[in-house]
Amino acid sequence: MARRHRTPPPPPLPQRGGIDPVRLRLPEDPGHVWPTVRDHLIARFGEAIGAGRVDAMLREGRFVGVDGVVGGAEPYTAGRYVWFHRDFAAEARVPFEVGIVHRDERIVVADKPHFLATTPRGRHVTETALARLRRDLGLTELQPAHRLDRLTAGLALFVVRAGDRGAYQTLFRDRRVRKEYEAVAPYDPSVTLPVTVRSRIEKERGVLAAREVPGEPNSESRIELLEHRGGFGRYRLLPATGRTHQLRVHMNSLGLPLVGDPVYPVVLDEAPDDYTRPLELLAKILEFTDPLTGEPHRFESRLRLCPGASQWPR
Fold first, then answer.
1. CB–CB of 183/282 below 8 Å?
2. Which residues of the chain have pLDDT under 70?
3. What integer pLDDT is reported at residue 122 of this predicted model?
4. Which pLDDT value is given to residue 89?
């Protein structure tokens, strides 16, 4: 008989390419509509990948429980844990490396390049900073403490031990991390800077662009001009909050959309990434007090923004 667990047991499958196996907990079945494990898996995944593919995965022993391979004909048992690895679609390699700014027994601070997602999501799974770092550093428990947009480059904090993750995530939740970004955008002398922008930002699931709406502000950014040349400015951006696309939305609201932004002010048709035209936004500095040791940290990205020579003479 299958064992029941109140808390999830450790996965019986190792990571594959730095990606954890999917964990299922078989739900209650009051109507007894799933006599076997196969019946439930077909109902759950058949529409997405087809019943034939589910059957093939069962034949290949791809579904595994704490007691070993799960057979499709086994009686359905609510509460049972089952793991499997998804079929990963082929992903083009993002042709930039992840830099290591700092590494110790607790944290890894990485320099994430443009175009590389932080964590597996949607169509970006194996080509993510998390998967690469797990593979390259051999740190199977590595977890992100926060997330950078795929198109943004710069500092990302990862936690080495899964049990420590909450302490570092709390720093970001409680706004005890000082974050400094650098950006390149048009220069407009009529825009008075520095300025602090506060607004209410909402992001609908499945919609690329976030939007500002009336209501109580839930986002705040300070915008400073560092220098300007040839119609473009280099800006320091200091977010006090961390809403999705916040800095891009606030710069756009000032009439200063970031160079290389495919979403603001206009959502462009989705096309293959143009690695010669990155979003000119860099997470440059992270400062915080380590929640486990009390040690003050200040990290600075080694990456640099590099708009074209016609935009920013060198």
1. yes
2. 1-6, 306-314
3. 80
4. 85
Tens digits of residue pLDDT in 77-108: 999 999 999 998 888 899 999 999 999 999 99
100 residue type, one letter: I
pTM over 0.85: yes
Q: In a 3-state reduction of DSSP, which class is residue 250?
A: helix
Task: Report how far Cα 4 is from the mean position of its chain's Cα atoms.
Answer: 32
282 burial via Cβ count (<10 Å: 0-12, 13-18, 19+): buried
Comparing CA positions, the residue from 308, 313, 311, 301 lying closest to residue 153 is 301
Tell me which of 29, 87, 149, 174 is the catalytic residue.
Answer: 149
* Residue 55 annotated in active site: no
What whole-number distance in Å separates Cα of residue 79 and Cα of residue 29? 10
State the amino acid at position 210 in one-letter form.
A
SS3 313: coil
Q: How far is it, in rounded angstroms, from Cα 272 to Cα 166?
A: 36
Q: Give the right CATH number for 99-300 from 3.30.450.20, 3.30.2350.10, 3.30.565.10, 3.40.50.720.
A: 3.30.2350.10
Q: What is the dihedral of CA 141, 147, 152, 156, to 10 degrees?
A: -50
DSSP letter assigned to residue 36: B
CA distance 102 to 277: 28
Where does 22-84 sit in CATH, by number?
A: 3.10.290
d(CA 94, CA 113): 9
C-alpha R_g of the chain: 23
DSSP three-state, residue 19: strand
230's tokens: 């040839």
What is the number of alpha carbons within 13 Å of residue 149 lying toward its C-beta?
22
